[in-house]
Amino acid sequence: MFTQISRQLLDWYQIHARNLPWRKEESAPYAVLVSEIMLQQTRVETVIPYYQRWMERFPTLESLAQASLEEVLRYWEGLGYYSRAKNLHRTAQILVQTYRGEFPQHVEHLRKLPGIGDYTAAAIASIAFGQKVAAIDGNVRRVLSRLFLISEPLSLPETQKKLKSLAVQCLPAEQVGDYNQALMDLGALICLPRSPKCLQCPLSVLCRAYQNNQQNDIPVKAKKKSLPSVIVTAAIIRKGDTVLLAKRPLGSLLGGLWEFPGGKVEHDERLPECLKREILEELGVRIEVGNHFGTYHHAYTHFKVTLHAFEAIIQDSQIPHPIEAEEIRWIPIPSLDKFPMGKIDRLIARELVERKDGHGKFMV
């Protein structure tokens, strides 16, 4: 059965493989690295324009290694999970400085690089170097769980161990990179999370879930916990035609990105009071809170955020200092797009530009 799976899947892949830009690079390890890091927790259609823009600016490992982290984050902005960009940048530097620009070819060496886990290491090793290793991502887990009718939740360690064993047994003797990509494509195009297209699947005759009419019940997932909600405030502090931005510490969430300063609301704290306290703690100055600028919502992996932005001014000509931030700067509003930001702060920045009229005044 295992040989039949790989043979039929490779035949299908020759005809139906997705036309993806990183597959035009003759499986160059750098192209595989960039694409696989971008594809972590991000859909292919979202990644494609980011990948193309990235490769125009950073076409080689060396060009990425030589770039500043701030520029790297700016080109990554919008993809989220910014630790991926920082790890990718650091990996490029390590490969250039320590490996003379060459990629290690084996999984155990690739795994030692920042941000490269089991799946990404296996993808690079198999696609770029033809190593016989199984690359197991979410799509592959779904396909295998249906093929072999695995009814235990995928999150269980025993289930993951079983899936890995089955994945290794299915590997062909040759064309391992194509086979791994074929599995990914099958999961993305045919073996969908909901309403899989079983009648179009090259493996339907071998699929135990389909043969038992259980394809919609597999894979079994553990129930998700509801995400906690956090309320935060942010200050739009203006001085003439500039606004004050703070750079988040590198080790924090969204580290290295610029933001409008503020912070989390404490229990029973009113929004203006929260903002005054946060700015005093973060910048060492007292502010007057003015108009409410906007309310913004965003969901991260482990929590949801509602942010309230207010216009504010610093009292008594005090000078702010980066007590908690990595750095602060007064930025001309037309130049805000040059500074990497998280999603909410970018929305605020764009709205600031839109509200500004031709005379340098804000229409609030």
Question: How would you describe this protein?
Answer:
It is a single chain. This protein has 2 domains: 2-211, Endonuclease III, domain 1; 229-355, Nucleoside Triphosphate Pyrophosphohydrolase. Strands 1, 2, 3, 4, 5, 6 and 7 form a 7-stranded mixed sheet that branches. Helix 2 (29-39) packs antiparallel against helix 8 (118-129). It has helices at 2-16, 29-39, 44-57, 61-66, 69-76, 83-98, 107-110, 118-129, 138-147, 157-170, 176-189, 208-211, 271-283, 343-355, and strands at 229-239, 242-247, 258-259, 262-264, 287-299, 304-314, 327-332. The N and C termini lie far apart (68 Å). The chain has 364 residues and is of the alpha+beta class.
Q: How is this fold's topology laid out?
A:
Layout: H1 2-16, H2 29-39, H3 44-57, H4 61-66, H5 69-76, H6 83-98, H7 107-110, H8 118-129, H9 138-147, H10 157-170, H11 176-189, H12 208-211, E1 229-239, E2 242-247, E3 258-259, E4 262-264, H13 271-283, E5 287-299, E6 304-314, E7 327-332, H14 343-355
Parallel strand pairs: 1-6
Antiparallel strand pairs: 1-2, 1-4, 2-3, 2-7, 5-6
Helix pairs in contact: 1-11, 2-3, 2-8, 8-11, 9-10, 9-11
Protein name: Adenine DNA glycosylase
Cofactor: [4Fe-4S] cluster
GO molecular function, one term: adenine/guanine mispair binding
Number of domains: 2
Q: Provide the CATH topology of the largest domain.
A: Endonuclease III, domain 1
The CATH class of the largest domain is: Mainly Alpha
β-strand amount: 5-15%
What is the CATH architecture term of the largest domain?
Answer: Orthogonal Bundle
Keywords: 4Fe-4S, DNA damage, DNA repair, Glycosidase, Hydrolase, Iron, Iron-sulfur, Metal-binding
Protein name: Adenine DNA glycosylase
Organism: Anaerolinea thermophila (strain DSM 14523 / JCM 11388 / NBRC 100420 / UNI-1)
EC number: 3.2.2.31
